[in-house]
Amino acid sequence: MSLVDISPPAFDLAVALVYATPDNLTGRPFYRADARPYLRREAAEALQRAIDLARPLGYRLKIFDAYRPVEGQWALWNANPDPEFVADPRGGGPHNRGVAVDLTLVDATGAELEMGTGFDACTPLSHHGRIDVPLDAQRNRLILLGIMTAAGWEYYANEWWHYQLWNARDYAIVDQKTLPHPPMP
């Protein structure tokens, strides 16, 4: 089993791997600064479909995270052991299987669309279908939801940014040692 590097130029998207910076809920990077996003082939194909659906609407996708090693899952769990927002690393989550993405939409200038909360905001305001976020954020979340589900992704009700393949649990957890450029140990 191998993972596909979904970095540009192979995939027309913006990449900002939040966990390669200290600007995340753990307060420290747990990916190397030169980390790249990876997905299983089936997920990469679904991501390409989403890219193709976003383009005629004038949008691009911006990836915050894709495959995540179990060690990274532990870092998130230790910072916020809330199963509403972080998968328990003992069972592994869709990111650990290489079949999930955290992302948003950007406009033609590369500016992120308003989504009502930031990425990884561990608050009920991050849930899909919230009507107590600004109307433009509601609209943008629905556009992202439509693009991603039309491309074959399942959404996670508690996080507007998280999408995974429908059969995510059917995939085995990926051993990070198989990556050409593994995240930080």
Commentary on this structure:
It is a single chain. This protein has helices at about 40-55, 70-80, 135-150; strands at about 5, 15, 40, 60-65, 100-105, 155, 160-165. The protein is an alpha+beta fold and about 180 residues long. A hairpin with a 2-residue loop joins strand 6 and strand 7. It is globular, with a radius of gyration of 15 Å.
Proper CATH architecture: 2-Layer Sandwich
Largest sheet: 5 strands, mixed
- For the secondary structure, the number of strands is 7
For this structure, what is the CATH class?
Alpha Beta
Give the percentage of residues in beta strands. Answer: 15-25%
Order of helices and strands: EEEHEHEHEE
**Gap from first CA to last CA:** 21 Å
State mean pLDDT (0 to 100 scale): 93
Q: Please mark out the parts with pLDDT under 50 across 5 or more consecutive residues, or reply none.
A: none
Spatial order of the strands in the main sheet? Answer: 2-4-5-7-6
Q: Using the coordinates shown, work out and report the CATH topology.
A: Muramoyl-pentapeptide Carboxypeptidase, domain 2
Task: State the shape.
Answer: globular
Q: Which structural class is indicated by helix and strand composition?
A: alpha+beta
Q: DSSP helix count?
A: 3
Overall helicity: 10-25%
